[in-house]
Amino acid sequence: MDLQTPLSSIAGIGPGLIFKLSRLNLNTIEDLIYHFPFRYDDFSQTTTIKDAQVGQVVTLQGEIWSIKNIYTRSGKILTQAIFNDGTSPLDLTWFNQGWITKQIQVGDKLQISGKLTKYKNKLSIMVPKWEKMAGGHSALDMIHTGKLVAVYPETEGLSSKWVRTKIDQILPQVLAKIQDPLPDFIKTDMLSLGDAIKKIHAPNDWKEAEKARDRLGFDELFFVSLATQKARAQWRKKPLIHPLKINKKDLDIFLKKLPFKLTNAQNKALNEVLDDLSKLTPMNRLIQGEVGSGKTVVATIVTYLVYKNSFRSLFMAPTEILAFQHFETISKLLEPFGVKVGIYTGSRKEAKDADVVIGTHALLSSKLNTKDVGLIIIDEQQRFGVEQRSYLRGKAKPPHFLTMTATPIPRTVALTLYGDLDLSIIDEMPENRIKIKTFVVPNKKRADAYKFIEKQVQMGDQVYIITPLIELSETLLSAKAATQEYLKLQNKVFPKLNLGLLHGRLKGKEKDKIMQDFKNKKIDILVSTSVVEVGVDIPNATIMVVESAERFGLAQLHQLRGRVGRGEKQSYCLLFSETGEPQAVGRLKNLEKINDGLKLSELDLKIRGSGEIFGIRQSGRFEFKIASFSDLSLVEKTKNAAHNLLDLDPELDKYPLLQGKLQSLASNVMPD
Known about the structure:
By secondary structure, this protein is α/β, with parallel strands linked by helices. Among the domains are: 45-146, CATH 2.40.50.140; 299-402, 3-Layer(aba) Sandwich (Rossmann fold); 437-594, P-loop containing nucleotide triphosphate hydrolases (Rossmann fold, 3-Layer(aba) Sandwich), CATH 3.40.50. The protein contains 21 helices and 22 strands. It has an 8-stranded mixed sheet, sandwiched between helices. A 6-stranded parallel sheet has the order 17-22-21-18-20-19, with helices on both faces. α6 (193-201) crosses α7 and α9 (264-277) runs parallel beside α10. The longest helix is centred in the first third of the chain and has 32 residues, at 206-237. The model is unreliable at 136-140 and 610-620 (pLDDT under 50).
């Protein structure tokens, strides 16, 4: 047995379990032992029933005196047992777990953990954690009770108890095979990798759990820093086939013809790009800016300058509807200068002799002529697979590369996640944008909000209603919740209006059709999960409603808010909250005052930690199970450690284990 052994070859793991494990991306032993707990239940207080206090979480040792299943009128099963530790009897109750009577018999000695309550004047524990105390086994051998007990990310039919049991069986057999890739001078006083993995799953106390998290969190950030810094150094070694000449006169003529003046932030980003274009190495830059901050205009100016150097540009958007939107905008700006703009998507291919080709994934087609491509632009880059980006890059050797994102990621985070890219931030909005009015709406004002929405729609406005974020991934559960909300709103709340439904389980063409119908005013209210297309212009949409807003990160709510306010009318964002909890409401109230996405993402980082920032864990770039970007000193420490190591050994020839680790990460890092 080794780390790459498939879980399917382990005794007792059949096809049903393999399917459930695969839903958590657990396929090998290595995947399983790297499936870390997200919290611990503290069952370390072992006491007696007589000495325990009501409301206390306790661990008790004793014997089962009786156990039986009771069937209720509604068809539910109650399992009731009487447990005695020699000082007092105690009632135990489980709900809908009738199989427990087959596993626990009268006379069995158990160790149980749970919260002590009083019900009908009797001491009891509802749904206790339990395990049998086999003869000769001490309390130290217990893994589900009597200590800090690991709680894992679960899926239906696969409990933390099952995961704990399997890791407890398997980890001792492979522990010696875990190789620690960190050199000693970087590791210093941190735990060894094997020790950290052992202690994260079964710590003896909170201090051990913390030390294990410190080491494993360091590894996650360190490898990302190492991978991105190494990639950056390699990219800078690539020679440009033809350096570009930036003619200031051409630039001035183009800027004068624009129907608006660039903001200071746009000018700064443009100058940073122009500086890159005049170097002897290819550009590899990320422009980050709010929706509506004018990233596309900056990209268009760059395509014009590339055209003046007799090169072509490819511009890739994540969806057809966005590609057509960019095509319209960019054509209007470039065609007066004689630049031919083409479109290349699944449904429309008009790119013959085009100087700038705007498209979707269809740009990856081998049929598209990519001769003389000097610039590749990717909009919302986290939507694209790494293989697709690499393929695009391979079509033009080596082109300038410009990536754009509207996801507000704090600078410290962006510099680590995208350490291989140069970063430009457009942190200023055009002056003519009307500020969106945002309100946190308590449940008692919901009816008034619905009346306001109906009135605005009757005046010709359109509305988005975003259904709750149930899981990070767009699951069947989320789609079902959106469908239920849509039916409720259509039948009971807005029966006279036209409603549409959009969720991530729909096919691409269906999504595009719904967005097109919304754009063409065939739909008054669009009920949607949070998949609402990034950047799609619906100038007539003036109200954004978010249900259960407390489930979203501030930066994500800000991005959703950015879907409205594209036209000349006053727009509104209504945040419906199910909770009256002051802290949660206070967090949402920040959106009433703050309109800056980066400020909100920094706040998110402080309040909720990095896992909650929209576009990090979900960005598809790297997966962080433990590392937190809110630990700025750790971010800095790992970045410096990576920098120092690459200074000593740029190719990592002396560290084959690190080379191997980076190869598994390399596919996530630009450039290739």
